[in-house]
Write a structure and sequence with these properties.
The longest helix has 16 residues. The strands form two sheets. Strands 6-7-8-3-9-10 form a six-stranded mixed beta sheet, with helices on both faces. The protein has a four-stranded antiparallel beta sheet with strand order 2-1-4-5, with helices on one face. Helix 3 runs parallel beside helix 5. It is 34% helix and 29% strand. The two termini are 21 Å apart. By secondary structure, it is α/β, with parallel strands linked by helices. The protein has seven helices and ten strands.
């Protein structure tokens, strides 16, 4: 499904080079649940941003099935993300002035989809937050916010879900609940790449990758 070939990412800050990723090769099969671990600054988020087509590598190639993502222009890259990738973030990234329903509906509106209400309610019910549909994020618990973020990620029914420290802002009990949801989502055939610094969270993944100083290795 995904193939990274000799990916390098170099940032130039104040005329000093920082090598975030060096000579990274990675294959991801359809339906895998992959955990990416590493210390702060090791290159985890850079890898996720490249997989999510949010950042371009400095060199190397990224293939998603038969698409060479590194060759896409800005408009085609934006369309690629809408069609193939969903994101879940540590701090939820919900729009505070919109209801739970409206937050989940947003990616569908961005794709000009019809019959949004039925799809939104389907995933609110799946994540057991349908009774919160009219509430705004400020009145929700951390676990409820992450369920809303998961519903937003699922509603477009993309093939790949990228999760950046999705339990980092949650307590132990809620973390366990959210990880159970990720496992249920994975069982439906979704491909998930989850970044974490927590070994207990990583244990829920089927395959583990460690990044150290921009270098990737399987563990």
């Amino acid at each position: 499904m995904i193939r990274l070939v000799d990916i390098n990412k170099i940032y130039d800050v104040d005329k000093a080079e920082t090598r975030a990723l060096e000579h990274v090769d990675l294959n991801i099969e359809q339906g895998e649940f992959i955990g990416v671990i590493g210390t702060s600054g090791s290159g985890k988020t850079t890898l996720l941003n490249i997989l999510g087509a949010m950042a371009r590598p400095s060199s190397g190639e990224y293939f998603f099935r038969d698409i060479n993502v590194t060759k896409l222009d800005r408009n085609r890259l934006n369309q690629f993300r809408k069609e193939h990738i969903s994101f879940v973030f540590q701090h939820f990234e919900l729009m505070e002035h919109y209801t739970v329903f409206e937050n989940v509906e947003m990616p569908l509106l961005a794709r000009n989809e019809r019959r949004c209400k039925e799809k939104v309610m389907k995933y609110l019910e799946l994540l057991h937050i349908e009774d919160l549909s009219r509430r705004k994020p400020g009145s929700l618990s951390g676990g409820q916010k992450q369920r809303c973020a998961l519903a937003r990620a699922l509603v477009t029914e993309t093939e790949l879900i990228l999760a950046d420290e999705p339990t980092g802002a949650l307590d132990v009990k809620t973390t366990r609940e959210i990880l159970n949801l990720f496992e249920q989502i994975h069982e439906t055939g979704k491909t998930i790449v989850l970044i974490t610094h927590d070994p207990d969270v990583a244990e829920h993944c089927d395959r583990l990758i460690q990044i150290e100083d921009g270098h990737l290795r399987e563990i």
